[in-house]
Amino acid sequence: MKKIIILFIAFTSTVMSTNAQQTAKEQVVDTKKHQVVMQVTQGDSLFQLSVISQLKNIKKALPKAEIEVVCHSQGLPMLVKNQTKVAKHIEELSQQNVTFAACENTMQRHKIKKSDLLPQATTVPSGLVEIILKQEAGWSYVKGGI
pLDDT-derived band of residue 2, with 50, 70 and 90 as boundaries? Predict the structure, then answer.
């Protein structure tokens, strides 16, 4: 009987210690400043929804994370008023420290004006250069989508 009690106490201590360690890790994650730059290069509706899902998952796990979504090449339609399938999601995420940036080089190539973009969209001269600069500044890179 003493062996069972000792095993029970040892098991309970291990479980409690593991739970305390997990709680401590969660607190460390929550206090760290997270900066993420996400690249979007595809514009079809399933891809756009996949990007939104990924963004929401990141914000759920890291609510204080600063995120910039850089749309260029075939990903630009995600930010174009009459082409996007996720305008309401972009509006919602923009209020949660998520920035959406359109590449001006791609805009010129496709003859898209700033007035054609969603009101939440910003622009950057070059999508790729923006991603490079963010990475050099220590931001984590994520390739968005499926």
Answer: low
The span from the CA of 77 to the CA of 109, in Å, is 13
pTM, to two decimals: 0.79
Tokens coding 122: 């910003």
Mean pLDDT (whole number) for 44-65: 96
How far is it, in rounded angstroms, from Cα 83 to Cα 89? 14
* DSSP 8-class letter at 93: H
Mean pLDDT for 90-101 is 98
Report d(CA 107, CA 112) in Å as an integer: 5
Per the CB < 8 A criterion, the answer to whether 102 and 76 are in contact is: yes
Three-class secondary structure of residue 40 per DSSP: strand
Pairing of strands 66-71, 35-40: parallel
Tokens of 4: 């069972």
Q: Do the Cβ atoms of 130 and 101 come closer than 8 Å? A: yes
The length of the chain, given as a count of residues = 146
Asked whether the predicted pLDDT for residue 28 surpasses 70, the reply is no
Strand order in the sheet with 98-103: 121-124, 98-103, 66-71, 35-40, 140-143
Rounded CA-CA distance 46/44 in Å is: 6
